[in-house]
Amino acid sequence: MLESTKPANFIKAAMLSLSNGYADMELADLLTLVHSTLDEFEVYQGEFLKADDRKMIEEGLTEKIEKIKEDLLICQSNMTSLQKEKESVEVINTELNNRIGEVHVQVETLSVQKTQLETEIRAEEERIKAEQERIRLEQERLRQIEIEKKKATTFIKPTNGRLTSGFGNRKHPVTKRTAFHAGIDLANSKGTRINASRNGQVIFAGNKGTYGKFIVIRHASGVETAYAHLSSINVRVGQNVSQGQHIGNMGSTGRSTGSHLHFEIRINGSAVNPLKYIK
C-alpha cells in the first residue's frame, strides 16, 4: 500500500509528526523528508514518531483507506448505474434517430404525394375548365339553334310604325272603294328600316305594279311574307335572310298616299292576318 501512496501523503505524515511536537526538525531534514523515497521516509518515521503515535497514525490511515474503499465501491456502483443510464439513453437516442429517419422518409413520401396530388388537381381543374367551356359552347350552340328555330317558326314586327290600316275589308285610301286588304299598313318616315319578319329565302325583289318596290320571302312549310311600297331594296333573289335582317327601307312607291309599309303573311298562297302571328 505504501508503494502506491503519493508523496503528498508523506508531507502530511511529516507535518502530523511536527504538530504533535515529537521533535524539532531542521529545515534540511524537512526538505529531505519531503523529497525522500519510501525507504528514507520509514527511517525518518522511526526516528521522530513514537510507537503509540505511529500505531494511531496507521490506524487512522487504515480507517481512511477503508473509507476510501467504501467510497470507491459507491463510486463503482454509481458508475455502473451511470453506465446503465448511459446505455439506456443511447438506446433511446438510437430509437429517436431511427424514428427521425422514419419521419424524414414519411415527410419525403408525403412531399412526393403532395406534388402528385397538386399535379392531379391542376389536371382535374383544367379538365373541369375544359368541360365547362365545352358545356358553355354547347349551351350557346343550342341557344343559337333555339333562336334560329324561333326565327324560322315565329314572326316579328318588320318595322317600327303606326298601324294605319288593318287586315280585311276596308275603304281604299286611293280608289275610295271598299276592297279586301290582304295585309296591314305600318306608317313611319321615309327611309325607316325594314327587317325580315322570319328566316327565309328571297324569291322576288323589284318593282311590281301597285306594290311599287316589292320583296317576297319564302319560308318553310309553304309560308311567305311580302313587303311593299319600299323606297329601296337591300337584298337579291335567291339570297337567304335571317329574322331581323335589314332588307330595305320604307317609302311610298306604287299606289300609295304616304310613306308606309304594306306587310303580308301568306300560308299556302292565302293571305292571313299578320297581327295574329307577329310576336
Account of the 3D structure:
The protein is an alpha+beta fold and 279 residues long. It has 2 domains: 2-82, no CATH class; 162-276, Glucose Permease (Domain IIA) (Distorted Sandwich). It contains 4 helices and 12 strands; from the N terminus they run H-H-H-H-E-E-E-E-E-E-E-E-E-E-E-E. The strands form 2 sheets. Strands 1, 4, 5, 6, 7, 8, 9, 10, 11 and 12 form a 10-stranded antiparallel β-sheet that branches. Strands 2-3 form a two-stranded antiparallel sheet. The chain is rod-shaped.
**CATH homologous superfamily of the largest domain?**
Glucose Permease (Domain IIA)
Based on CA atoms alone, the radius of gyration comes out at 64 Å
Structural class category: alpha+beta
Give the SSE string. Answer: HHHHEEEEEEEEEEEE
Which residue ranges are poorly predicted, with pLDDT under 50 across at least 5 consecutive positions? Answer: 1-8, 18-23
* CATH architecture verdict of the largest domain: Distorted Sandwich
* Portion of residues within helices: 40-55%
- Please give the count of helices: 4
**Name of the CATH class of the largest domain:** Mainly Beta
